[in-house]
Design goal:
Layout: H1 2-32, H2 43-97, H3 104-124, E1 128-129, E2 132-133, E3 141-146, E4 149-154, H4 160-163, H5 179-198, H6 203-206, H7 213-252, H8 256-291
Antiparallel strand pairs: 1-2, 3-4
């Protein structure tokens, strides 16, 4: 009799524990929104979800890196456009200064204008992003990290000395005070422009020590192309992240409505198990009373 009683109690207790554990698992799935909140719910599925979550984090950081680099390139591109505008104005003033009808005072005034433009061009080279100088040659190669590797971006050195507009002492090398000086400067600019068009592949090497309107133009073109690549890469990363999130959702997201239904069913079964245990105890008590 004692053995039967003990066996019956164990059966009810085991059933109750099984239902209680199932209810706890369902509550955990609902609270986390995941079908596999722990490896115990499915080791392989949990590992897949963990890898997807890790990949999503890496992709999200790559999106942020790309956005930051795109913002940096936009700042550099804006300063480079200002430099191009300044060099265009210098060309126009040199053409004016080469006109033999100008008096010396006129050429001196033109030279002062050129000096001011060159000063502004030099200031453009020190444009900053997040405290970093972009176009002064101190960071010619910028590196952005992404999940597909590293990308180097050349911003170049647009200081007036590097462009050949000033010497090592900061003195302006462009001369508009005489017809000869203006013509010589124009020949230099025209020669560099023609040479760069013919030798585009050697552009960087050729322009290291020369006066370079085309160097700045090339910088703007290069930065614009890089910016387009960054924007395209950002879109790729965003699409990749969306796909990974969708894959994670399909494999790992819990069906909340289904889990709530399961929870209600398990709560009902738990109550029935408790009721069964009480009835079993009551019946055993009644039997004992009858035997006395």
């Amino acid at each position: 009799m004692a053995s039967m009683t003990l066996g019956g109690v164990n059966s009810y207790i085991n059933n109750y524990n099984r239902i209680s554990t199932a209810k706890h698992d369902t509550i955990q799935k609902i609270s986390t929104g995941s079908n596999y909140p722990r490896a115990a719910y499915g080791a392989s599925e949990y590992a897949i979800a963990a890898r997807l979550t890790s990949n999503i984090g890496a992709t999200s950081q790559s999106v942020q890196n790309t956005q930051n680099m795109a913002s940096m390139i936009k700042v550099a591109e804006g300063a480079t456009k200002n430099t191009i505008e300044g060099l265009t104005n210098i060309q126009a003033r040199l053409i004016n200064a080469a006109n033999d009808s100008n008096a010396n005072l006129d050429r001196q005034a033109i030279q002062q204008e050129i000096n001011q433009i060159i000063s502004q061009i030099d200031a453009n080279a020190y444009v900053q992003y997040n405290g970093m100088n972009l176009l002064d040659g101190s960071r010619e190669a910028l590196t952005v990290a992404g999940i597909d590797g590293y990308r180097n971006l050349e911003l170049g050195d647009l200081r007036t000395q590097a462009l050949g507009l000033t010497d090592s002492q900061g003195n302006v090398t462009i001369d508009a005070t005489t017809v000869e000086g203006a013509e010589s400067s124009l020949k230099t600019v025209s020669g560099v422009l023609e040479y760069v068009k013919n030798l585009d592949g050697e552009m960087r090497e050729v322009l290291d020590g020369g006066l370079s309107f085309e160097a700045s133009l090339d910088e703007a073109t290069t930065q614009g192309a890089l910016l387009q690549r960054l924007e395209f890469q950002e879109a790729n990363y965003a699409t990749m992240e969306e796909n990974q999130l969708a894959a994670l959702s399909n494999s790992n997201d819990a069906d909340i409505a289904k889990q709530i239904t399961n929870l209600r069913s398990e709560q009902t079964l738990e109550q029935l198990a408790l009721f069964g245990m009480k009835m079993f105890n009551l019946n055993q008590s009644n039997v004992l009373n009858m035997l006395r």
